[in-house]
Specification:
2 copies of one chain form a homodimer. Chain A is an all-alpha fold and 198 residues long. Chain A contains 8 helices and no strands. Chain A has a single domain, classed as Tetracycline Repressor, domain 2 (Orthogonal Bundle), CATH 1.10.357.10. Chain A is elongated and about 55 Å long. In chain A, α4 crosses α8. At the A-B interface, α7 and α8 of A face α7 and α8 of B. Chain B binds a DNA duplex (30 and 30 nucleotides) through loops.
Chain lengths: 198, 198
DNA sequence: CAGAGAGGTTAGCGCTCGTTAACCTGAAGG
DNA sequence: CCTTCAGGTTAACGAGCGCTAACCTCTCTG
């Protein structure tokens, strides 16, 4: 996968700034003029790139859910012949990378879902559900004693743990990205282990 | 502590419904008319009880933070001569009770803080910080190997885990309140233990 | 029984917001 | 060189919002 070297398109600029603003002050708390100003154009100019404010949020949320799911599927495919433990570690690692590198998106992801149009919301929910089920299967391979509902609750709880990074203070106050990632990883494994030891 | 048997006051009705609506659709997503309708009066009638919509949110958030902190302090005071482990268990239990019984408030608590006036926000932040520090101290007694920043990160992460209950589906789909509480408790302890075993 | 105050009502003001309309401009292309 | 069109601009509209004003009506209480 080649890393992009070309400049971001205007659409991408807008999405990035919109994500940041939505995460900071909520979907309804941000005006289109502000989003425009953040990329150097003014309010209505956005409508050359998006059908409306709703469309920006929809594209963001669908994008996030899709990325998470795609990444997890790839990790699962890459892990042929390795232990379930290693697969789970890979999933955790991927989620942590996402949570640490795209904090605004992680915030939006479970905060503004209800502001979507019905069809978009259904799509996002479906992607999220697939992502969860994928985790549930792996977790149950590692901890066969877990019933499916219990495993699902455990997965949701660990997501809560991993997604807590936005509350960990501004990026500077952390003990360093690597250490934080490692701490989160250990805690996630510890939480699963405790759930599995009924 | 006598459990209340008298009917809730109008103010309390309003706060409860406002909390539910704010949690469902966000502070900016709910109109005063809706809040009024939820308690059987119409929009402007609310202003006989609150100075404005902001005041409702402020009272809710200050109330939550204060309740959490007060409860934790009481638990700490009650635990004289017991092991640090037992104190930590008591804190976890209290937080879980809150998360399971007052889900709308838990959602508001870390989602709408930025909509407050400066002075109110500072107050809430201060109460939250005290609550966190209280946990940090207890956690470090149980796991002396943890540095303070690491312990604080761990505490925030466990809050994320415990506060994930809103994502666990509607109250009916859970494996039962008792089982859920027990699962969350075990996972929280497991996460701390993993954090402490550097 | 008069008067006051608590707790409602409806009408409407002023502001903000998302969106559209109409217009402008610079670069590409036959 | 004229046309086209992508990508901007400003003006303005219509809806919805929080909130106030003005008024009404019970229920106490001196």
């Amino acid at each position: 996968m080649a890393t992009r070297t070309d400049a971001p398109t205007r659409r991408e600029q807008i999405l990035k700034e919109a994500a940041r603003l939505f995460a900071e002050r909520g979907f309804h708390g941000v005006g289109v003029d502000e989003i425009g100003a953040a990329v150097g154009i003014s309010g209505p100019g956005l409508y050359r790139h998006f059908a409306g404010k709703d469309a920006m949020l929809a594209e963001l949320l669908v994008g996030i859910s899709g990325q998470l799911l795609t990444g997890a599927k790839r990790r699962l495919a890459d892990a042929d012949g390795v232990t379930p433990e290693a697969v789970l570690d890979s999933l955790i690692e991927g989620h942590i990378d996402f949570a640490l590198d795209d904090r605004p998106l992680i915030i939006l992801h479970d905060r503004e879902l209800d502001r979507l149009r019905d069809s978009d919301r259904k799509l996002v929910r479906q992607l999220q559900r697939q992502y969860v089920e994928l985790w549930v299967e792996v977790v149950r391979e590692v901890y066969p004693g877990l019933t499916e509902p219990t495993a699902r609750s455990a997965v949701h709880s660990v997501f809560g743990l991993l997604n807590s990074t936005p509350h960990l203070g501004r990026p500077g106050s952390l003990p360093g990205r690597g250490a934080t990632a490692e701490l989160l990883h250990r805690m996630a494994r510890g939480a699963f282990a405790a759930a599995g030891a009924e």
